[in-house]
What does this fold into?
Amino acid sequence: MPIFYCSAILFDLDGVLVDSTRSVERHWRAWAQQKGVDAEKVMEIAHGVRAIEVIQHVAPHLDAAAEVREIEAREVHDRDGVAAMPGAAELLSSLPDRRWGVVTSGTRHLATGRLRLMGLPVPEVLGHRR
It folds into this structure.
């Protein structure tokens, strides 16, 4: 097994530490139906894209910031369809504090909520794409 040396490690959240695909899809589809937006159009772009950008693209007539808060309020406490990735807890617990972080297209609030719901530590470094 190769050994590599680094000062720190950045992890993506979804698909690396947590799998929330089913939850994300369920919430986006419910939102689309409630707002009269084509759910398939939403799903074509929703994964890995900031929610505000998805809303601006599919529903420019809505207040995107308010819609993000509404969707996020539903998602942040949702355990159904959310799971820690196998080995994530063990890996994170083996790393020194302040030597790893999480980056994501989701908001800090949502990322923190998902990590906590899955019993994973929340790093000091937690960034999202602006």
Q: What stands out?
A: The chain has two domains: 9-19+84-128, 21-75. The radius of gyration is 16 Å. The mean pLDDT is 91.
